Amino acid sequence: MATVDALPGPFTFDPATTALVVIDMQRDFMEPGGFGETLGNDVSQLRRVIAPTEALLRACRAAGLTIIHTREGHLPDLSDCPPAKLNRGEPSQRIGAPGPMGRILIRGEHGHDIIDELAPAPGELVIDKPGKGAFYNTTLGEVLAGLGTRSLIVTGVTTEVCVHTTVREANDRGYECLVLSDCVGSYFPEFQEAGLKMIAAQGGIFGWVAPSTAFIAALQPSLQRT
Ligand code: TIU
């Protein structure tokens, strides 16, 4: 077992039953011309997440941790996109509309894929999801059950949307979740701060929060064994 110095208290995990989940580090959220920008957001706010996540991925790969990436997006015919999600914003900029990185938030388009810096390595799982949560209408639950996973290390974007939704879904399903504060990002600094506080408040109502350096330090014995 390993222990991370976290909020609201120590987070204990077994690397053999722990998975890193990297949420939606896609061009559509991270780069100009994608879904995030069409919603009116300043995508440069998310850049600071990239370098610590690269370092985290290196450490997790070296330790042999299970690594899962997710991508939010929809089928080209939009049959998996409910009107409540589709009918938002300017029609010319909605999900499925053409953009500089291809059709916005559509599977298979350049904008839908993960940014080059954090591209999945061979053998890492990629879960495509139609919603904000990574469990809704995906195989993630079955995949984790098959692996015997009990703890999730959660990173990605955005803190108060897809990260929060996934952590809440995971917590209800019995997973212990550690969110790495410098590896999650929001377009809104005030939501970043509040979003992290909400996870660890009330004795860890949804999970634990720690910086990635604290998690990587806790992984060191696993790194030395490999
Ligand atoms: N809009 C926003 O902040 N986020 C999303 O729509 N999706 C994710 O968080 N991935």
Descriptive terms for the model:
single chain; 226 residues; alpha/beta; 8 helices; binds tricarbonodiimidic diamide
Summarize the SSE layout with pairings.
Elements: E1 2-4, E2 11-13, E3 18-23, H1 27-30, H2 35-38, H3 50-63, E4 66-72, H4 83-86, E5 98-99, E6 102-103, E7 125-129, H5 140-147, E8 151-157, H6 159-172, E9 176-185, H7 189-204, E10 208-210, H8 212-225
Parallel strand pairs: 3-4, 3-8, 4-7, 8-9, 9-10
Antiparallel strand pairs: 1-2, 5-6
Helix pairs in contact: 3-8, 6-7
Bound molecules: tricarbonodiimidic diamide (TIU).
The site of tricarbonodiimidic diamide (TIU) has 9 residues, from helix 6.
How far the N terminus sits from the C terminus, by CA atoms, comes to: 16 Å
Q: What global shape is seen? A: globular
Low-confidence stretches: none
Please report the number of helical segments: 8
Radius of gyration: 17 Å
Q: Structural class of the helices, strands and pairings? A: alpha/beta
What portion of residues belong to β-strands?
15-25%
Q: Helical proportion?
A: 25-40%
The ligands found in this model are:
tricarbonodiimidic diamide
What number is the mean pLDDT? 96
Please trace the helix and strand order, writing H or E for each element: EEEHHHEHEEEHEHEHEH
Oligomer: single chain
GO molecular function, one term: hydrolase activity
Domain Isochorismatase-like: 18-205
Protein name: Cysteine hydrolase family protein
Keywords: Hydrolase
